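Progress against Task 2.4 (sequence-to-structure conversion) is shown through the following example record, which the project officer requested during the mid-term review.
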Amino acid sequence: MSEPQSPDTKMPRRDFDRLSLGVPAVLQTLDARLRVEIVNISQGGAQLILPSKDNFARECLLMWLRFEAFGEVSWREGANIGIRFEEPISHLAILATRKNAEAILQQDGNAAKDEAQRWAQGGVRI
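Structure tokens generated for the chain above:
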């Protein structure tokens, strides 16, 4: 059994609860437009997986579903980054994201399957 924490050893609390996802999104920076994966999201920020470990600007715009949020990279570990949103997104955006997460994943999977099929079939033959 663990011992109760004393007041000076408390872990800092997050301002918002996080929703674990694993859905695709687009991250726009001054240098690039990247397809990323949202690992989790809250009203105050998100954790993303980038397509590579390359450096990029600190300020960015995250776009998913019909939502977008400006933010700044607050931490980075390899291809994983944390973004703190400039302004909290609405609770309704979180609910809509959770509601549509399965459809987003299915749609992205179908697009990947179609792309692989087109690649396997090769170019147009005359």
